[in-house]
Each structure stands twice: as structure tokens, then as C-alpha cells.
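FIELD: query
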Amino acid sequence: MATMILKITEQCNSNCAYCDVVTNKPRAGHMPLALLETVFQRLNEFLEADPRTEMNVIWHGGEPLLVGPDYFRAAHAFQQKHCRGTQGRIRHGIQSNLTLFSDAFAEPFRALGIDQIGTSFDPEPGVRGPGKPSNTDLYNRNFMRGDVTARRHGLGAGIIYVVTKRSLERPLEVFYYLTNLRLDGGFNMNPVLLYDSRRDDLAITPHEYVEFLGALFPVWWKHQARYPNVDPFYSLTSIIRDRELRLGCSDSGRCAYGHVNVDPAGETSQCGRSSDWGLLSYGNIRDRSLADILRDTQRDVLMERNNILRNGECGGCRFWSICHGGCPLDSWPKHGDLLHRSEWGCSRKAFVERYYEPITGLRFVPHE
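FIELD: result
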């Protein structure tokens, strides 16, 4: 399955302290409907050419709900018009901060087959919210309202919690707060990624991230039946104990020819981060087919990276099959290229060796 990150706006109603829009380029407005229609025409061309392929469309921003519910109704109409024979192979998801979700979005979301909303939530003061300084209380109230509304319509919400320096002060408090918020234990804990010194009050090191996870893991392991879906613990257990290889794009080593980001002006790139940094730009979707974009020769460097790392920095590492050197984009700020391993990728190895294996008595065996 290929993945399209459809960034329909770069505007947002929040001022998150760690926002990964790291350049100073002007933020674009909303994707015009005429361009959105072109996107669906390109999707149909791509899927018609290969009946075995599916496309995962992730609606993204900025904050995608800023475009309003009628925009998603128009998207469904374009899909019905241009993808009659292929729409069964298009899967839709969305990433939203949920603060704008209302009853009006439920019907167009159902029409597109969206049943899950990816979101982020960080309750600490000053991390999320509109204005400067961020109005966290207003953000939290609107998030809770949107979450309740979404669940009333049968929409799940998978939460990402971003681990910052403030999280390190009280790891178990964070854990219990999130598990109470999600009684099924459904959340993921990712490290904050900051590439300059503007927010040293939030930045953490890979070692600190590992220690944060290590403080929580014995509790999760003992009570995993009660809190089943806490990541990265659940995914690692699926990999190590159950031998089910579930990898995200940053760890898979296979993002080269299967991902494309489309920005509000139709410019394409590998992903949102590469777009923000002006890297791996593949032209405008108005001018190029998806097949040509996904075969662009610039992508070859990502596969070359696998060979370079496996025979160099990552040579002999028993965790290669579940890390692949981490996200290539993490290499750019430090090295000016995509060919080095990520220190965040190495944090997976450190956590497994320092905490997972000693606590569980299980040993990671490399996958073939």
C-alpha cells in the first residue's frame, strides 16, 4: 500500500511549542478545490494502472479541520466522480488536534470511510494552545469537547503524547493521566524532535527518552492486560514476543518508493518534514502523475542509505530489522545528508537492552 500525506492547509489554530514546521517559509492557505479534484484524478490514474495497489490517504495540516465540513463533502464528491472503479482501494485517515471537531464533520467523515482520528495531546501548561503564550486551558477544554463528540459518533482517536523535558519530572503521573484519559490504554509516547536551541526548556536527549520509558515499562508490563495499547511498549511486544513485525515509516527502511506528501499548492515531496526543509521535492501534482512521482530517481538515495548503513554505522547490529537506522530525515540537521543513522533510532536498541530484555526475560531475535 502506498501512502499519500495530503496537507490541505498549513494554517493552524494552535501554537504548539514543538511544531515541526522548522523553516521560515510563509505558510500557505487551503488547497483550492480545483487542485483537490486533480488529486483524486491522479489517485484514480495510479490505481487503474495497477489493480493490486491500494492508497492510504492521510489528511493533514496544519489543522485540516480549518477547511470546514463542506470541504470533505467536496472530497467525497470528487472521489465518487473520478474513482468509481478504484475507490474501494482508497483508505482515508486524518490527523487533527480535535479542538474544532463538531457534529457537522461526522457525516462527511463517514462518507469517506474515516473511522479513526489521529491526534496529539499534551496537558502541560504552555506546550499547546492558541496565542503567545499558549492558552493551554482553552486548548484542553476544546480538545476534550472534540474528543467526546467524535466518540459519540463512533470515531476513535489515537493519541500521541510528545515527551519533553517537562515530562521527565513525573513520568508515572503522565502515564496514569493518559491511561485514565484512555481507559483502553490507547496512546503513543514519542520524543520531542527539536533541531535548534530555541526551546531548550523542552528538548530531551535520546538517553533521557529511554530513561523516561524505562520508568514506565515495569508498570505497563505488569498491567498490560489493563492498558493494552500503550506504545512503543505494545508494538515492541508484538515484535519480540509475538514475532509480528509492525514498523512505522521511520523504522521500516521501506519508505523510499511508497510515500508522497502533497502540500496546499500541489508541490510534492517525500513527507511533511522533507517538504518543510525543501528536500526531496518531486514536482507539482498538476504536472506529474503519481506513478512518476513515486518513481522519481531522487528516491534512490533512501535505498542507497540502507546499504551504506548496513555495511557501515549499523553493521552487525542485531536490531537492524526493526530499526534500519531510523528516519533518514533525522540525519539531515546534523550531517547535511540523509545517509547517517538516527540517534533516535538507536534509542530503540538502548531501551530493549537496558529495560525490555532484563524485565521480561525475553530476548529480541532478529527477523529475517
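FIELD: remark
The chain has a mean pLDDT of 92.
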